[in-house]
Amino acid sequence: MKDIVLSGIRPTGNLHLGNYYGAVRSFVKMQEEYQCYFFIADWHSLTTHPTPENIQRSARTILAEYLACGIDPEKATIYIQSDVPETIELYLYLNMNTYIGELGRVTTFKEKARQQPDNVNAGLFTYPTLMAADILQHRAKWVPVGKDQEQNMEMARKCARRFNNIYKTELFPEPQNYYFGGDALKVPGLDGSGKMGKSDGNCIYLCDEEKVVRKKVMRAVTDNGPETPNSPKPEVIQNLFTMMSIVSEPETVAFFDEKWNDCSLRYGDMKKQLAEDMVKTLNPIRERIQEFSSNTELLDRIAKMGAEKARESAAATLREVRKTIGFRVY
Ligand code: TYM
User: Fold this and answer.
1) Report field, pTM of the whole predicted structure over 0.70
2) Is it the case that residue 199 has pLDDT exceeding 80?
3) Nearest protein Cα to ligand 1, atom 30
């Protein structure tokens, strides 16, 4: 039997290059070899209270973008989280074994609580157990994610381990992070600090028009330029190089690195090249996004087919879970 893979993305806007290089690129690769479930985490997006119209539209948007990136519904199961109610039942059981102290220590919770002090809700607090339920309901062994999900993944492993220990079972495998190319990836933002995805201003979206991509890259934050040969790069400049090492060929990065070291680097030239390389990746994806977005009938059919397959897998796990805990199984 093939190993099981699961991953998901919150539909809080369009997919950006961070999502693509951190996660979706792995999805496309993994669907060839594994039994894959890729979903749209619309329940998770409720932590910030979107409107009903928003929810409908954004799930379809991500679905179209998944397909445009090359996720194939014949190879992988693509579904919307809220179509699989079994997830909620497992979420409840996992919450019973998860301690307030450990949830309170999750960095993303602490950050979100700081950002939205008027809305520190219980859903936000138990975000990691819902994520664990997403994973464990399919008994997934691999979870392709970016670096920012490390702590949530640690919690998912803890949930699996604790359930197995309490009930003296081996029902849940401990899910492992999967990184494309082997290393955890954090795609930097264009505003000189942190990761891509914090705000519109630091993001390149997969659906951005060519001229928008060029404009955003040309505006990326830099400094006055190299002054001392072979000096270490400040964070904003390192981010530009990190971005280039993700989207461009190694020779291109080496070329600009040499220019940094001999102080002849002109950021304008480097950004032009970076934009060029991004556009090459993004142009075909954007065209396919447009095609898929307009075909709502196809999107709804794929979501329905995915929901059926995902429910079948989740229901099989939940039968085992109910039996293990001591509940009746129908
Ligand atoms: P989300 O929606 O914030 O991000 C989706 C995926 O994109 C990756 N990512 C990045 N990777 C590298 N650099 C970046 N700048 C960057 N920005 C985003 C994330 O690491 C993630 O893999 N909690 C998840 C959604 C989720 C999930 C799950 C994931 C819910 N249940 C079960 C895996 C398994 C989240 O908020 O991702």
Assistant:
1) yes
2) no
3) 131
